[in-house]
Amino acid sequence: MKLTSFGPANTIARAAETHPLTWRLRDDGEPIWLDEYQAKDGYAAARKAFADMSQDDIVQTVKDSGLKGRGGAGFPTGVKWGLMPKDESMNIRYLLCNADEMEPNTWKDRMLMEQQPHLLIEGMLISARALKAYRGYIFLRGEYTTAAKHLNRAVQEAKAAGLLGKNILGSGFDFELFVHTGAGRYICGEETALINSLEGRRANPRSKPPFPAAVGVWGKPTCVNNVETLCNVPAIVGNGIDWYKSLAREGSEDHGTKLMGFSGKVKNPGLWELPFGITARELFEDYAGGMRDGFTLKCWQPGGAGTGFLLPEHLDAQMYAGGIGKVGTRMGTGLAMAVDDSVNMVSLLRNMEEFFARESCGFCTPCRDGLPWSVKLLRAIETGNGQPGDIETLLGLVGFLGPGKTFCAHAPGAVEPLGSAIKYFRAEFEAGIKPVTPGSLTQVATATMAGA
């Protein structure tokens, strides 16, 4: 899998005006350290924010830009920042970067951290200034060892240059930044589970309210943002609201650019920075190159394992939250996966649900018991031992574990692909159901009476 931000050769200019997240990337994929980053206008936006903008000005600029969270939920970033308390006496505040990128088929944040660690640091520095946060943590997926090494080096470089620590840029503002590697749980992508884990507790989601902006890490006001979200902040502050809004395609309700990708048996799997509103077909055909010879596109997911499956006929949907929403699912992380015609959907879903069942924190009953139940049924259907009514039970679980039925969004995301797979490929599930015979009915009745 190539970690690249650009499409086929010579099709996209590497320009700061059109690719704010990736224009600095090196052709050899090596990380950009402080001297090179500053030579490419790095920390210029931070200097502007400290010299020419008040803290409220930064918050308002981000709010007016329309920047939304890039971790999958898509909550407006400026609105989230505005929830932090205005009370100046609450002077201990935290900024947390959610870098626990454990969504299957998602690797966008990894590229940013490995190749442009100072972009994330600058984004956190400006954000901390706006939020009046004196300490920040990058909560990093434990398996991202290269990212950890590069981030730690970049933090030390920034400290030595007076860009982190005490009295940053002579402003009187102090900000310490630490890299914290997690123990490896998918549920830590949920911000309050991340907070519990950072505190050394079990990674269970917290009850809300109170929200982290009021009571977060160690009981203090806390803001949690995704890596890609924070990496957008320097360009917004440096280039302005109108410029940022102009980047997206016509028709998109989301502004700016997005790291998007395609994996699976496509000719050119990779990662690209593209404007919101580009069609999935352009992403699939022009950038990913379509399917490899000998394979046919069966279906695709638009943004990670927790998004619903779509058909080839849905490729004309625009890649932004509302555009993907119109065809029945969520954009999620924006990294799509192509499923080819050789894949059995029951086997694919069994594999996915095993992952989600294993990663459940077990806090609430629907998720703790419902996901393993779905795995048990899928295993039976996969081996041809499914019983009449199993598909209906699976669909019942999709409803019981849907939005608003569980403590957090883990279970709804887990069952969304299951519901869509049954919707579009029910025949494959039905093929694993044993035919009803008089003998089988007797066995079922006997088992039922024994159970009673």
TrEMBL record:
Matches recorded under PROSITE patterns: COMPLEX1_51K_1, COMPLEX1_51K_2
Domain NADH-ubiquinone oxidoreductase 51kDa subunit iron-sulphur binding: 346-391
Cofactors demanded by this protein: FMN; [4Fe-4S] cluster
Family: Belongs to the complex I 51 kDa subunit family.
One Gene Ontology molecular-function label: FMN binding
Task of the protein: NDH-1 shuttles electrons from NADH, via FMN and iron-sulfur (Fe-S) centers, to quinones in the respiratory chain.
Naturally occurring in which organism (per UniProt): Pseudomonas rhizosphaerae
Pfam families noted in UniProt: Complex1_51K, NADH_4Fe-4S
Protein name: NADH-quinone oxidoreductase subunit F
Subunit structure: Composed of 13 different subunits. Subunits NuoCD, E, F, and G constitute the peripheral sector of the complex.
Known catalytic reactions: a quinone + NADH + 5 H(+)(in) = a quinol + NAD(+) + 4 H(+)(out)
Keywords: 4Fe-4S, Flavoprotein, FMN, Iron, Iron-sulfur, Metal-binding, NAD, Quinone, Translocase
